[in-house]
């Protein structure tokens, strides 16, 4: 589904040259939910933007269903960390969700249907006529997710979507994402720096090294598909996986080569 | 034909034998004859229809005439001479006003407040005198008065102030003297102010103060219109001069001067022809004051 | 209900006080330039008859509307173009600063050459003064479009005119309105000034005529009318602004309340 | 170094182009009001001698400085008082809107009654126009003090003058400066206009004299001087602003970069 | 040390009446570290502000060392959740930390000493001359903590101080708070809605019910004093405590009466 091959990205400007991503290769199968973890500033956002066609890579390439990505592809949707700055505050929730669909050229009726459906999925059917800033942070992020869902993407890219919401809302949103993933069969690439979150959510966790970034480890999460906040998190296997990733990241920070 | 349809927007166009011309004016007593002439049909008789636009000073009218916005304009003589000496293509076509030539009974005067110790223009040395435009006919004439009274005009401090501000400024002592024209003159007198000189009379007897003018280009291209305007204006001037009450009456239609004030106003003279000798005298004085870049060519300027 | 009443009382209190003070202080005045307020009030209905409103206030208002609308359109259009491209901005800024510094009244003779002395000239003078706050505020507003929102729009394929309409202009609208507000007061000043040069009707013209004609109480009524006009326009403006920028005030209020 | 050079080239490009176009377009002009740029440039040194700079430009600049400083002090002081108390604001706002709408040039006769015809009058006229943007912006700025910061200050016992100095005025300073910037352009306009009323020297007076005296190239040099003066003042202003509001620009830039 | 007795707070305004806190009674001993958890919107911030003297309670009282709190008491410091809005962006880090001390009237030398010491404690000795916005979120929150420390309070109130920082920084900050508490022996009242955080940090956890708020349960945390992110969090006792609190909160949300 999604192939990242030898991706390299160097920022140049004002005489400074930052090699954010050195050489990344990994693949995401159709319908997979993959979590990317890495220390802060290691280039996760950069990577995701290259995958989403928002940044042109310096080297390597990104393939979506075998075709090279050179601009935002229609089959892909992005959920940003900054919910407060990704929804348009001058549009009501319904308009926010519907705008990309209008751009796609869908009929009014079809748009209405998709918007209702997507907002229903995230449990915000009542909020169509509200403004984003009338909602709590968690609700806003759910609207952003609904917007992505209504777009009917095959691939969903999520960049630390829950970093700024409170702990309890975050738990709810995590369950929402897993639910939607299982229900709709979307391919999801999920970036986070919360290790617990990565292990709890993902079917697979890709651990990145510190900058300049390479893939440090890929880890299959062999927890049951049915997960819940209370029991999964106290599962001994969860603790093991969590500890493993934690150590990898600590090592990544210190720059120790993976064993 | 007296149709006033058509040609309303394109000024200067003739329709049905009537030529509409735009005239730039200052809304003061001086231009009453034109309004009166229009009303009495003197212009219509010549196949002319006037459309008036009022401006706040001659400086706004001259560019309008030079660039063809107006066909005719009203301006004082000194301004026209300055314009001509700066190669602005203007040409006078008809007389507008002249001073009454009577000392103490003119429409313009140098005035002082009621308790002022100043008795003669000579006493203005070292004093602050308000005139409405510096480096123009009023400054020239006030200087002439001072000189004539034996003073040194270079010792007078001139400040520029609008006529309508002068009575209050005199009253509050912000200025020592003011050269005012009607209706400000009437206002000053009603506040107890005194005249100490008739500045225009001091320049020359029967001084021609202002003229109607056009651009040289328009004068070349439309000599017959200019001639008609001159004739009609001359007739209007004569009529106004002979019927001061009608002139007073018409002033109320285009200014906001209260009728009570208007009754006390001294009207100017409206002779049909300009007085060339007085204009030459004015030019000499202006040259002494350094108003002109080059000597104005009166032969070219005057009709 | 009681609150609304209270607000009304507050709003009316100071004007009432000031008018009373003026009334009492000027009661016995014999100064020509400082007539008793009583005289002014008595003169009011005589001066501002329906005919005068139609013949003087209406033309002024129309010129103001024309110049203001022209400035708004030109300012927003140019401002958007300049604000969108860093290069254009770098090239245009010094010239804008220079042009802005030349007061429109000084340019009147020049404007008269091109625009004549009629209404076109007055509208041009008003527009020449009003355009600057609109232009400069639009530039700032367009520059400040949130990069996260811009990337969101791009990732959903919202480009070109749709982007301009749904993102750039909406996002810049608070600044654009701030510019329009400033332009309004400048417009009133220039409306009066432009009528001082060459006019045969208009509010500014009439007031100056009263001054010249020593009709001082009438002049005072003119000043009052001018103040009322400005007040009225500002109320209308606030009403429009509250409708268009409802989202913005809501957003600000909610940002102030919570993190 | 190369970037600085490039920026200089950009900044100079458009002015150079415009001047060239003007030069070429006006080269053969025989229209008195539209003299060749060549003539204007040649007239420049003759007109703007050291003596004239001292005798006309300096007095104008001093009046502008006086009026501007007065407006700044009054505007900030009143604005702080009004912005700090909701009640005061409710009471004052309508009156302010009314007063603001009366153009200072119309008030000249009234101002002359109190302030005479000398420099005091001109300074008052300038101040009367400049005070509004400063006042209204200060009110907005003071109102918008962040409640979290306000509570922080309170919890650490920072009250009274210390609060004003360390919190309120600093926090409002971006808005205050925006008001001062607008006031600057209004100030230049009013400097010119006030010198049209009762003056015997000054930049505006000189330009009007040139106009009346049909010294058209000289008038054009005056317009250039006015533009240059405005440009210079705006450069100085920007320099001061960058020093005082360095923190604000940094804050904004950093807010734009990261969440 | 700190006694909260029958605290009640009702917000009134715009006709709406919100009973945020109904009846709260608890005590915090000298040198204790107590965590308050409760569902979102249950009135935790309200409670803390009443304790800190920033809000006047509607009923009941707060005693600090036996004396009734009626305004911000000198022996108390507050750390807010919104680090970005609690530090003054126009002051450098050092000035921010030093400002409350200047207000306290300390000598310059003593101030410098306290500032250096406090910044050293949070590991930011190098950042004295930086502006807050030049620092990452975690560093900013550390500055806010340093400001509180430099103030030498006996009681430190912290309102969800780590809600907005990323997961790894949060872990570091949690360890920092525990370290400082052990080192300096300050009494700390720590509000959070992250259950893991409450259990990890506190010696005692007070669970609040949903609004109208009462104390639902007080729970002693019998984990060893020496805690660390890796081992404590996978400790079975930790899991038990966490699960217990989680269930209490779920019940609190549903409004079930505590057993
Ligand atoms: N536009 C840019 N120009 C220059 N350097 C940049 C730019 N964007 C990011 N960088 C640098 O590239 C590196 C990777 O940044 P990136 O934002 O991708 O990291 P990240 O893993 O998403 O970090 P975080 O966990 O904080 O979100 C950092 O060193 C950053 O400073
Ligand atoms: N100034 C106010 N005026 C009116 N109601 C308020 C005010 N502040 C808070 N409230 C209300 O009081 C209740 C408690 O608010 P509070 O902020 O104390 O809760 P909280 O537990 O801190 O919430 P959170 O976990 O979201 O921070 C909420 O219902 C809130 O809407
Ligand atoms: Mg990132
Ligand atoms: Mg709270």
TrEMBL record, chains A, E:
PROSITE patterns: ABC_TRANSPORTER_1 (PS00211), ABC_TRANSPORTER_2 (PS50893)
Entry protein name: Putative ABC transporter ATP-binding protein
Keyword DNA repair included in the entry's annotation: no
Transmembrane residue ranges: none
Origin: domain of life: Bacteria
Pfam families xrefs: ABC_tran (PF00005)
Keywords, ordered alphabetically: ATP-binding, Nucleotide-binding, Transport
From TrEMBL, chains C, D:
Compartments (UniProt record): Cell membrane
Transmembrane segments annotated in the record for this chain: 65-85, 106-135, 183-208, 220-240
Membrane topology field: Multi-pass membrane protein
PROSITE patterns: ABC_TM1
Cellular component annotations (GO), alphabetically ordered: plasma membrane
Main location, first listed in the record: membrane
Domain ABC transmembrane type-1: residue ranges: 57-241
Any GO BP: transmembrane transport
SUPFAM superfamilies: MetI-like
Keyword Transcription regulation: no
Matching Pfam families: BPD_transp_1
Top-level taxon of origin: Bacteria
Key words, A-Z: Cell membrane, Membrane, Transmembrane, Transmembrane helix, Transport
Family, per entry: Belongs to the binding-protein-dependent transport system permease family.
Stated name of the protein: Putative aliphatic sulfonates transport permease protein SsuC
Species: Streptomyces afghaniensis 772
Biological classification of the source: Bacteria, Bacillati, Actinomycetota, Actinomycetes, Kitasatosporales
């Amino acid at each position: 589904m999604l192939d990242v091959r030898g991706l390299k990205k160097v920022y140049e400007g004002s005489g400074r040259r930052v090699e954010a991503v050195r050489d990344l290769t990994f693949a995401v199968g159709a319908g997979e939910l993959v979590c990317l973890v890495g220390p802060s500033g290691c280039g996760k956002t950069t990577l995701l933007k290259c995958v989403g066609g928002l940044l042109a890579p310096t080297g390597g390439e990104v393939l979506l269903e075998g075709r090279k990505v050179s601009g935002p592809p229609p089959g892909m949707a992005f959920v940003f960390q900054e919910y407060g700055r990704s929804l348009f505050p001058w549009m009501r929730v319904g308009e926010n969700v519907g705008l990309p669909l209008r751009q796609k050229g869908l009929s009014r009726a079809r748009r209405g249907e998709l918007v209702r459906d997507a907002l229903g999925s995230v449990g915000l059917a009542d909020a169509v006529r509200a403004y984003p800033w009338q909602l709590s942070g968690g609700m806003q992020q759910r609207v952003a997710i609904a917007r992505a869902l209504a777009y009917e993407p095959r691939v969903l890219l999520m960049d630390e979507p829950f970093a700024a919401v409170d702990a309890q809302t975050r738990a709810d949103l995590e369950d929402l994402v897993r639910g939607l993933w299982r229900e709709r069969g979307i391919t999801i690439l999920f970036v986070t720096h919360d290790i617990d979150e990565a292990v709890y959510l993902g079917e697979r966790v890709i651990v990145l090294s510190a900058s300049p970034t390479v893939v440090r480890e890929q880890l299959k999460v062999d927890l049951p598909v049915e997960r819940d906040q209370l029991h999964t998190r106290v599962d001994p296997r969860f603790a093991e996986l969590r500890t493993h990733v934690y150590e990898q990241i600590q090592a990544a920070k210190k720059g120790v080569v993976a064993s | 034909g007296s149709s006033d349809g058509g040609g309303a927007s394109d000024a200067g166009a003739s329709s049905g034998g009537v030529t509409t011309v735009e005239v730039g004016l200052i809304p003061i007593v001086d231009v009453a004859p034109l309004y009166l002439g229009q009303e009495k049909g003197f212009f219509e008789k010549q196949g002319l229809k006037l459309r008036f636009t009022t401006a706040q000073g001659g400086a706004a009218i001259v560019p309008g005439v030079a660039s063809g916005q107006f066909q005719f304009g009203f301006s004082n003589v000194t301004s026209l001479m300055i314009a001509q000496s700066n190669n602005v293509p203007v040409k006078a076509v008809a007389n507008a006003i002249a001073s009454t030539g009577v000392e103490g009974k003119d429409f313009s005067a140098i005035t002082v407040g009621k308790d002022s110790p100043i008795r003669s223009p000579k006493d203005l040395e070292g004093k602050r005198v308000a005139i409405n435009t510096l480096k123009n006919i009023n400054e020239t004439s006030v200087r002439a008065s001072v000189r004539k009274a034996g003073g040194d005009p270079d010792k007078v401090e001139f400040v520029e102030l609008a006529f309508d501000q002068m009575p209050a400024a005199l009253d509050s002592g912000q200025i020592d003297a003011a050269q005012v024209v009607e209706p400000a003159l009437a206002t000053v007198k009603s506040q107890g102010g005194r005249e100490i000189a008739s500045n225009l009379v001091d320049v020359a007897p029967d001084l021609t103060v202002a003229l109607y003018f056009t651009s040289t280009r328009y004068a070349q291209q439309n000599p017959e219109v200019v001639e008609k305007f001159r004739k009609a204006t001359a007739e209007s001037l004569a009529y106004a001069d002979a019927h001061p009450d009608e002139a007073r009456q018409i002033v109320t239609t285009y200014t906001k001067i209260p009728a009570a004030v208007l009754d006390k106003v001294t009207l100017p003279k409206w002779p049909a022809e300009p007085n060339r000798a007085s204009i030459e005298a004015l030019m000499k004085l202006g040259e002494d004051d350094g108003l002109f870049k080059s000597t104005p060519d009166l032969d070219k300027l005057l009709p | 209900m009681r609150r609304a009443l209270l607000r009304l009382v507050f709003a009316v209190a100071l004007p009432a006080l000031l008018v009373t003070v003026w009334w009492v202080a000027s009661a016995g005045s014999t100064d020509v330039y400082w007539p008793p307020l009583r005289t002014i009030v008595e003169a009011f209905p005589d001066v501002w008859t329906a005919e005068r409103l139609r013949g003087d206030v209406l033309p002024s208002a129309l010129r103001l509307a024309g110049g203001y609308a022209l400035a708004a359109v030109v300012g927003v259009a140019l401002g958007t173009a300049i604000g969108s491209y860093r290069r254009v901005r770098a090239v245009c800024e010094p010239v804008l600063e220079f042009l802005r510094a030349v007061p429109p009244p000084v340019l009147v003779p020049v404007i008269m050459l091109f625009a004549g002395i009629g209404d076109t000239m007055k509208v041009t003078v008003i527009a020449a003064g009003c355009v600057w706050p609109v232009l400069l505020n639009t530039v700032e507003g367009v520059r400040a479009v949130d990069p996260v929102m811009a990337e969101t729009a791009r990732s959903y394929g919202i480009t070109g005119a749709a982007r301009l309409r749904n993102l750039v202009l909406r996002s810049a609208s608070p600044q654009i309105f701030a510019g329009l507000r400033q332009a309004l007061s400048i417009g009133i000043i220039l409306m009066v000034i432009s009528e001082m040069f060459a006019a045969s009707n208009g509010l500014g013209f009439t007031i100056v005529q009263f001054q010249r004609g020593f009709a001082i109480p009438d002049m005072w009524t003119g000043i009052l009318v001018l103040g009322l006009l400005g007040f009225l326009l500002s109320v209308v403006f606030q009403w429009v602004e509250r409708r268009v920028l409802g989202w913005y005030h809501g957003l600000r209020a909610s940002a102030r309340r919570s993190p």
